[in-house]
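Worked example 3 (structure in, sequence out).
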């Protein structure tokens, strides 16, 4: 999800010199200097400059990711009926075999709308 004020407040003690993670149940976990945390967030719309400067942020546009993550997410979201695991694997195989070939063909032989 997005970086929001509640998330930032929860992470403040991890991000400062205390390096202590305070969990929702009141438990506190002290991290040592060799530990690293990695988060994938939806957006940084409400992240303050202080939060961004304390974290190593990497922004990837959908264009940088390509089509594969979108197809994986779509496949994972399909309901179990009628899409059992075997059906999902078969659809995924077809994506892997044909989508990039189709994109390459269109880029070579067609024209793309510029948006």
């Amino acid at each position: 999800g997005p970086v929001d004020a509640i998330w930032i407040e929860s992470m403040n003690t991890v991000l400062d010199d205390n390096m202590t993670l305070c969990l929702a149940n009141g438990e506190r976990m002290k991290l040592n200097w060799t530990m690293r945390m990695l988060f994938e967030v939806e957006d940084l719309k409400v992240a303050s400059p202080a939060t961004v400067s304390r974290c190593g942020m990497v922004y990837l546009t959908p264009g940088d990711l390509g089509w594969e993550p979108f197809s994986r997410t779509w496949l994972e979201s399909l309901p179990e009926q009628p899409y059992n695991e075997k059906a999902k694997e078969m659809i995924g195989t077809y994506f892997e075999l044909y989508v990039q070939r189709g994109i390459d063909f269109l880029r070579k032989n067609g024209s793309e709308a510029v948006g």
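Notes: The CA atoms of residues 58 and 64 lie 12 Å apart. The mean pLDDT is 83.
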